[in-house]
């Protein structure tokens, strides 16, 4: 306790803050990369005028509140006021669209990754670049705004992601970590910069509009892990900590996306490694040895925080509908006067799923709170269906919702593993789906027919991963790679608990996924006929 107090007083700690879909979390780590304090703030995106968004007030209130709770945690636990920090890093949900004019004013409400409104732009850019440009990507949002004839486009001076926005306001630097930047516009793995030929193609596409900008001029500058990305300005310190206790001058590392922090948090930045982050959304990241043979709309090509090529399968929906059903069971229990511990409830229901039939007994569900690009569904319609012959019981019901949380992900992973024959030495799971020991882990292993490991640190998640990237910038040796730093200085001796796929589970999941793919027609019919 006394040594940690001294570390805090001397400013030897490192802070990571991540803006997730439902929670903003701040994590402070010590010199051994252990979390010593944290604070969080729950928030939700809202659907306004057909756009999934968070307001600027939401963003800054959430940032300040999560930091304030962390500072209180420090004072309560160690009896010291947090004033100095060795380094800070910010991360957030990738993609989306935040466009600003020359005065730094937001031109249109923040359009998050969750929106499925850029289909026309996505298809046109994929064709023009011969490179998959998903609807979530920032460049798709920009081009769709152009195709829509939106008036604000001519006034754009800068556009960026949520992490890039926070970093800019706290440091004055319009920069982005390469992993987050790779979700804005394609990256050339050789130069570790935006793909020059594609930049030229885009400028030619919009040349007739006579905008006063060129694309390269309004994109954030790219930095790789380990580079210094500026310092906390006095104005930035006040934004983060209105109490005035936090001192300016703290170095910041490049801001990153939640995919990059997931890779750092699971030691999955080396080639032939991968990780699956399963929460509100779910995505798999596999570090590739070479480029894919074909362009697949289901596979994004992004990068690690140090610039290696990554095949990413991103599904918009994972546990939200599953969590809603668990909430319904809580409401049921509470109506009988029972006090419900949510961790126990989740654990009980998840373990109940293991008693179910391997193929879920003929049940089917889609937890689509929002559209799902991988399966071609444009809007969300959560759906549960069964036939009169289905074996409808609690175990199969829970197993179905766990399977379907990974359904869209499996469709994409089957392309990487079965069509491109990508080799993976290890997959690590992290996020809420894996909190109940052995359940989500075993189901993911069955879905991708690959051993899955979960580390004790898996619950630390993205903000801890962001703190590791900030620590790497602060403490790395001159030529030390990120992969070496993580393997030798953070995860040495921590290989996690591995689980091999059960052959019967694999067979059952294959049966389920065929039902899932055929049933997409039902989901699309619900979209057409169930008017919100």
Structure description:
The protein is of the alpha/beta class and 532 residues long. Among the domains are: 147 residues, Nucleotidyltransferase, domain 5, CATH 3.30.420.40; 111 residues, no CATH class. The strands form seven sheets. Strands 16-17-15-14-20-21-22 form a seven-stranded mixed beta sheet, sandwiched between helices. A five-stranded mixed beta sheet has the order 3-2-1-6-13. A hairpin with a 3-residue loop joins strand 1 and strand 2.
Number of strands: 22
**Intertermini distance:** 54 Å
Tell me the major beta sheet. 7 strands, mixed
Any idea what the shape is? globular
Architecture (CATH level 2) name of one domain: 2-Layer Sandwich
- Determine the mean pLDDT: 95
Strand proportion: 15-25%
CATH topology of one domain: Nucleotidyltransferase, domain 5
The helicity comes to 25-40%
C-alpha Rg, in Å? 23 Å
H/I helix tally: 19
Salient structural properties:
532 residues, alpha/beta, Nucleotidyltransferase, domain 5, seven-stranded mixed sheet, five-stranded mixed sheet, 19 helices, 39% helix, 17% strand
Sum this structure up briefly.
The chain is α/β, with parallel strands linked by helices. The protein has 19 helices and 22 strands. About 40% of the residues lie in helices and about 15% in strands.
Task: Record the SSE blueprint.
Elements: H1 2-9, E1 14-19, E2 23-29, E3 35-42, E4 46-48, E5 51-53, H2 56-78, E6 87-92, E7 98-100, H3 119-129, H4 138-147, E8 158-160, H5 162-171, E9 175-177, H6 178-181, E10 187-188, E11 193-194, H7 196-205, H8 215-218, E12 221-223, H9 234-240, E13 256-257, H10 258-265, E14 273-278, E15 282-287, E16 300-303, E17 309-315, H11 320-335, H12 342-353, E18 364-366, E19 383-385, H13 394-405, H14 407-419, E20 426-430, H15 439-448, E21 452-454, H16 461-475, H17 482-490, E22 497-499, H18 503-518, H19 520-529
Parallel strand pairs: 1-6, 6-13, 9-12, 14-20, 20-21
Antiparallel strand pairs: 1-2, 2-3, 4-5, 7-8, 10-11, 14-15, 15-17, 16-17, 18-19, 21-22
InterPro entries: ATPase_NBD, FGGY_C, FGGY_Carb_Kinase, FGGY_N
GO biological process, one term: carbohydrate metabolic process
Domain Carbohydrate kinase FGGY N-terminal: 14-240
């Amino acid at each position: 306790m006394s040594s940690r107090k001294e570390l805090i007083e001397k400013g030897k700690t490192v802070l990571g803050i991540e803006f997730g879909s439902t929670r903003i979390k701040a994590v402070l780590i010590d010199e051994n990369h252990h979390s010593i304090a944290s604070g969080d703030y729950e928030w939700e995106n809202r659907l306004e005028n057909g756009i999934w968004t968070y307001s600027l007030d939401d963003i800054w209130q959430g940032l300040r509140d999560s930091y304030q709770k962390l500072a209180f945690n420090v004072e309560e636990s160690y009896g010291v006021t947090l004033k100095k920090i060795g380094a800070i890093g910010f991360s957030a949900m990738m993609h989306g669209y935040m466009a600003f004019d020359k005065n730094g004013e937001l031109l249109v409400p923040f359009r998050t990754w969750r929106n499925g409104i850029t289909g026309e732009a996505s298809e046109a850019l994929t064709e023009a670049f011969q490179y998959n440009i998903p609807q979530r990507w920032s460049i798709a949002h920009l081009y769709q705004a152009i195709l829509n004839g939106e008036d604000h486009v001519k006034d754009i001076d800068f556009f960026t992601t949520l992490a890039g926005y926070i970093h800019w306001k706290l440091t004055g630097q319009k920069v982005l970590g390469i992993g987050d930047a790779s979700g804005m516009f394609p990256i050339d793995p050789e130069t570790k910069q935006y793909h020059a030929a594609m930049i030229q193609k885009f400028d030619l596409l919009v040349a007739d509009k006579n905008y006063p900008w060129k694309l390269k001029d309004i994109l954030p500058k790219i930095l790789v892990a380990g580079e210094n990305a500026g310092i906390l300005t006095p104005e930035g310190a006040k934004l983060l900590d209105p109490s005035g206790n936090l001192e300016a001058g703290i170095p910041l590392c490049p801001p990153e996306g939640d995919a990059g922090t997931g890779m750092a948090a699971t030691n999955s930045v080396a080639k032939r490694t991968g990780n699956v982050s399963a929460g509100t959304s779910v995505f798999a990241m596999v570090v590739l040895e070479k480029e894919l043979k074909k362009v697949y709309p289901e596979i994004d090509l992004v990068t690690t925080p140090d610039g290696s090529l990554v095949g990413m399968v991103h599904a918009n929906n994972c546990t939200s509908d599953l969590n809603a059903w668990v909430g319904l069971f809580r409401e049921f229990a509470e109506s009988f006067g029972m006090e419900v511990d949510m961790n126990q409830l989740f654990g009980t229901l998840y373990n109940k799923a293991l008693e179910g039939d391997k193929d879920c007994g003929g049940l089917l569900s889609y937890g689509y709170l929002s559209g799902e690009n991988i399966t071609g569904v444009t809007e969300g319609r959560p759906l549960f269906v069964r036939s009169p012959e289905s074996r409808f019981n609690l175990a199969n019901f829970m197993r179905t919702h766990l399977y379907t949380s990974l359904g869209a992900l499996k469709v994409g992973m089957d392309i990487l593993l079965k069509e491109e024959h990508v080799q993976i030495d290890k997959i690590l799971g992290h996020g809420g789906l894996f909190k109940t020991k052995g359940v989500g882990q075993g189901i993911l292993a069955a879905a991708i027919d690959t051993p899955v490991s979960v580390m004790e640190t898996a619950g630390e998640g993205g903000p801890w991963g962001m703190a590791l990237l900030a620590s790497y910038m602060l403490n790395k040796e001159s030529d030390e790679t990120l992969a070496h730093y993580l393997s030798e200085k953070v995860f040495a001796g921590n290989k996690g608990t591995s689980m091999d796929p059960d052959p019967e589970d694999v067979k059952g999941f294959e049966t389920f996924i065929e039902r899932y793919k055929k049933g997409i027609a039902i989901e699309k019919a619900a979209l057409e006929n169930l008017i919100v």
